[in-house]
Design goal:
Number of domains: 1
Shape: elongated
Order of helices and strands: HHHH
Length: 70
């Protein structure tokens, strides 16, 4: 559920100047998590780490020339 929360928070950031201004002040991942919580989102450090890994894996798959198994 919290990965969905992360996606929702990102969408809010994209459309809300106040949230963007708050994020500029972030110095750590923990700061980001606290701001998300202030705006009603339940995000964890694990969500942020998982999302980084998932994005890297998806990017690699798109660039990969490996043919699918049959």
């Amino acid at each position: 559920m919290s990965r969905e929360e992360l996606r929702n928070f990102v969408e809010t950031v994209e459309h809300n100047i106040l949230v963007k201004e708050k994020l500029v002040q972030c110095k750590t991942s923990e700061d980001l998590i606290l701001i998300a919580k202030k705006f009603g989102y339940s995000i964890t450090l694990e969500d942020l780490n998982y999302d980084k890994t998932a994005c890297k894996f998806e990017s690699w798959l798109k660039k990969s020339k490996i043919n699918p198994l049959r």
